[in-house]
Structure prediction request, 202 residues.
Amino acid sequence: MVEIEYGKVRIKLGDTAHVYEPAEDSFLLADAALKEAKPGMRILEVGAGSGFVSAVLLANLKDIHLLATEINPHAARCAKANGVEVIRTDLFRGIKPEKPENRFDLILFNPPYLPTSKEEKVPGWLNYAFDGGISGRETLERFLDEARAYLKPGGKILVLISSITGLEAVKEIMKSLGFKADVVERKKVSFEELIVVRGKLL
Prediction:
């Protein structure tokens, strides 16, 4: 059993052959989320994977109401084992936005952002953690199209992207959907720069 200790919490990863192991992108999103989240907030993490980011928030903030979604059944079990309430579903599909409890102050997403051709797909469930489609933005664009319906007035999203994903393209998409987009964190890692973009409803 692999474990990672970070931000006052020890995360159990279980079978890392099927679950994305938290790395620099996970750490950067967790750090950004800790700065953005406040006590009393309703928070949703989409595609929570092992539950790393959610578990860090739960360990460091009091009185938050946190829900997560995850499509990979192995990762969903891992997130539950780390104390995260998780619904196994694709993005927002298992959540009904018309219910008041399903409107959130803050939504987090670390999407698969690697441009991926059919030949580059990873076998099995782990592909969901890496495969961003040909543009690297396919899953992110689906998320952005739906996110607004799940936010409270003035709500915010935090998304982790790579310089490979195309920062300006992402900001333009967010702007077209009624978000004010700002970069709140960035970190150079080997061949890419990791970037956390905040979108605030206008």
About this structure: The chain has a mean pLDDT of 89. The radius of gyration is 16 Å.
